[in-house]
Specification:
The protein is mainly α. It has a domain of about 50 residues. It is built from 3 helices and no strands. About 0% of the residues are buried.
């Protein structure tokens, strides 16, 4: 089922009109090129701003939380519980032979 529009497109492509430039003039092409370059420059500036001032601090705090939360949940230095001095049980009697050895 081909409509009238498709036959016009087929006729244009057969006659060689499909490879020609758009109906824009040379001046319009320069304006579009400058607009695209300006948009590209502006989007690069916005991208750099977002990556430096938004994404980096967010990652810093998220990764920092991942490393600090386990340390805060537990008490690795045992500061919250019990006295500061932990006595060790004496394994061997105090003898002169034991004092002469390192271990």
């Amino acid at each position: 089922m081909t409509g009238r529009g498709s036959s016009v497109i087929l006729n244009r492509s057969r006659s060689g009109l499909a490879g020609r430039h758009s109906p824009l003039t040379e001046g319009d092409d320069i304006v579009l090129k400058r607009l695209w370059q300006g948009f590209s420059r502006a989007s690069m500036a916005v991208g750099h701003f977002i990556s430096r001032n938004v994404i980096s601090p967010v990652l810093y705090y998220v990764l920092g939380a991942l490393f600090t939360l386990p340390a805060r949940m537990g008490d690795p230095l045992r500061l919250k519980h019990g006295p500061a001095w932990h006595s060790r049980p004496v394994d061997q009697p105090d003898r002169l032979d034991h004092a002469r050895t390192m271990y």
